[in-house]
């Protein structure tokens, strides 16, 4: 058995921040989950629907691994990324650092992991790996998935080799902190402004505040859009509230990030942003509940109400990001 020593196997709410937390704590940098998410400019919004999809997708964060790249750049960390089509090389990319006493981050498809509670394909899942033996790999996943967990080496190989939406080619990564790392406090304002700029000026109408406005128009049709609304709508609500989002489609995490920042930086713009995201987070939870109820009851009134709240959310989040952009 090969194990990295002194690993803090604390699971968090979201997969990518959980893995980042494990890798950074091993480098002596212990940041809260909201701070990891915020410094990585993680908040976003996407509404996606196409003829090939069974049901629309709502996303509340930047695409997989972008948060990791953003965070590494913000803090001046050395991020080494391995990708390959060769399963043999992929294993070497993981075993090498672990043998040398360093945990490794992995992007994979969670469907194949032995311990995973929901067996659906998601190729953007991220875990930290800190050990292995002849049969199993030892991982850290989110708290809802069990924190410190294990899966067979065969299942891990399948998860890493899977191809499809959001998958990567056996992606693995390590992080090294410099001897004098950038102060996280110094990177708060640039990270917030980067996030605000992207949210306020999306390249297409499916993203940012424009994407929320589009969702407001489309959600009222979801009973007709679905072949099985009793399953599809409650599942969409669960993905918004659970599924590693920290609740409220990642808005709880960003609200808590802004609250933590307001303790460090005296800014009326920051306080305004925090107040508005506190309001937004509560409304997103309400929207999810209305969508679930609509699916269970078949009553479109719930979706009309959800649409009204989403119109309001588009405005609230736009106002919040405009305030934060003035930091």
TrEMBL record:
Domain DUF4872, chain residue ranges per copy: 155-324
Domain named Butirosin biosynthesis protein H N-terminal: residues: 14-142
Pfam families for this protein: BtrH_N, DUF4872
InterPro entries: BtrH_N, DUF4872
Protein name: DUF4872 domain-containing protein
